[in-house]
Design the sequence.
């Protein structure tokens, strides 16, 4: 199975901050990488697919980058509604494993 | 855009089986793969497998092979996930989630059910 390692596991940031979350795959996955946001008690929400494509309806302050094994999710200016947990997921091979998540908290 | 409505919470004894349903509304049911993802209390997301509702082809995580069956009923636009031999480690919220693209299976999932809580006790 492909292991997905996210860092950091949690971070504290202020409204307006630029935030970057990293996801590393245990083997190359091209751009088969998706990012999700999950708020407490809710189902996840797709933000980015194939590493850098913004899902319809997702604010443009979210962006994704990367290829191969190293990927990033960036929030250019953190908003109050962005405090949540973020997960990466590889869709290169079965099983489509998720990272363990990055919790973004208010500083 | 689509909506997925799942069956209600289940409480099962160890060793029993559970069958969760996921009914689709508002899109062409047979055009999009359906995935199942679970989340244990306070934990992260775990991908279980996916099914092509048109034809019933499934791709399951090896961890669940032999214990999970995914089926679809095109007459009711419903997919089912059956999990047998339950243990306490199967306690989780189970989500169905629709592929975001009818053409590219790897484009993530964009429509999620509300989740079904399975308790094993």
Sequence:
């Amino acid at each position: 199975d492909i292991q997905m390692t996210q860092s950091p596991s949690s971070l504290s940031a202020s409204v307006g901050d630029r935030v970057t979350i990293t996801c590393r795959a245990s083997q190359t996955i091209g751009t088969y990488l998706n990012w999700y946001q999950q708020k407490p008690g809710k189902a996840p929400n797709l933000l980015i697919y194939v590493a850098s494509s913004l899902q319809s309806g997702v604010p443009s302050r979210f962006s994704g980058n990367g290829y191969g094994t190293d990927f990033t999710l960036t929030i250019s200016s953190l908003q109050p509604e962005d405090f949540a947990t973020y997960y990466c997921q590889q869709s290169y091979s079965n099983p489509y494993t998720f990272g363990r998540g990055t919790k973004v908290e208010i500083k | 855009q689509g909506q997925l409505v799942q069956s209600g919470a289940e409480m099962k004894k160890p060793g029993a089986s559970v069958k969760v349903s996921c009914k689709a509304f508002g899109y062409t049911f047979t055009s999009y793969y359906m995935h199942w993802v679970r989340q244990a209390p306070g934990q992260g997301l775990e991908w279980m497998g996916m099914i092509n509702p048109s034809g019933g082809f499934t791709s399951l995580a090896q961890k669940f092979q032999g214990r999970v069956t995914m089926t679809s009923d095109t007459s009711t636009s419903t997919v089912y996930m059956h999990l047998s031999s339950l243990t306490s480690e199967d306690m989780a919220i189970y989500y169905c989630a629709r592929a975001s693209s009818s053409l590219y299976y790897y484009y993530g999932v964009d429509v999620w059910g509300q989740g079904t809580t399975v308790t094993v006790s």
